[in-house]
Amino acid sequence: MVSRFRVGVISSTHGIRGEVKVFPTTDDASRFLALKQVILEAKRETRELEIEHVKFFKQFVILKFKGIDDINDVEKYKGAELWVTRENAVPLQEGEYFIADLIGLPVVTDEGGTLGVLKDVLQTGANDVYEVTMENGKELLLPVIDECVLNVNLEKGEILVHVMDGLLDL
């Protein structure tokens, strides 16, 4: 299982007092309000940073880190990724999974065959869609609905699905 999750990417500085503008890569940007610290991963540096202040501007999160008080101190972090440990990740509800834990899992059918491997999870708004790379190399899109995705078993390391009529014809 993945031990860290990316929650954002620093896109630029914000003001002159060391704040940064972060493009969130998490489902819910408001999660930054509860974060106390992040792991910054830059080109030549990985370090833990304590979050001092959070605010929002359009689609961005504006962060101020403790001990970084000048634009010159954060300029070098443009493009750096912000990560959290699994322990600091948002608690999941039953039936919810971290996408990073699902990528690469084998996808098997209720008829006993192996369909392929989960390549990505597309978030469409109505329901997620699993992008599966089939054994023949083709891509298959499976809607994440009860009639199609029967079980996700992280302990066993597989996703059990029912391929609805017509899905393989596309």
From TrEMBL:
Residues 7-87 form the RimM N-terminal domain. One of its GO terms (biological process) is ribosomal small subunit biogenesis. Gene3D superfamilies: PRC-barrel domain, RimM. InterPro entries: PRC_barrel-like_sf, PRC_RimM, RimM, RimM_N, RimM_N_sf, Transl_B-barrel_sf. GO terms for cellular component: cytoplasm; ribosome. Keywords: Chaperone, Cytoplasm, Ribosome biogenesis, rRNA processing. The keyword Transit peptide does not apply. Pfam families: PRC_RimM (PF24986), RimM (PF01782). Residues 101-167 form the Ribosome maturation factor RimM PRC barrel domain. Transmembrane segments: none annotated. Its main location: cytoplasm. Coiled coil: none annotated. One of its GO terms (molecular function) is ribosome binding. It is found in: Cytoplasm. The keyword Chaperone applies. Binds ribosomal protein uS19. The PRC barrel domain binds ribosomal protein uS19. Belongs to the RimM family. An accessory protein needed during the final step in the assembly of 30S ribosomal subunit, possibly for assembly of the head region. Essential for efficient processing of 16S rRNA. May be needed both before and after RbfA during the maturation of 16S rRNA. It has affinity for free ribosomal 30S subunits but not for 70S ribosomes. This is Ribosome maturation factor RimM. It comes from Qiania dongpingensis. The gene is rimM.
